[in-house]
Design brief:
Blueprint: H1 3-22, H2 25-32, H3 41-89, H4 94-113
Length: 115
Amino acid sequence: MSGATLLLCTALAFAGLATLALSLDRHHRAALRGPVPQGRVRPLRSAGWAGIALSFGAAITLDGWNFGPVMATGAVTAAALAVAACLTYRPGWLRPAALVALPLAAACLPFAFAP
């Protein structure tokens, strides 16, 4: 396990969980000051679950089946705490933070695959 791998998995999980949160009407209203459009719910949910699945897949690929699921669980837990804190204290920051998490994950990718 490297720090880049953990940051990659946590950033992907954060983006996924933030997207799932924005698919709910209550959180969408808090973060974006309006109701979630009906045609946007299913794509947001699909993208959210895809982010969580990518986080799990990256953990398994980079750390194997022995430690990968443990790291994926920790990354999703840390990301969930960060999303909950963002929704509680600064809901308007959730969307920009999720958008920053994706380039951060992309920047960590070469370092995660380095020996």
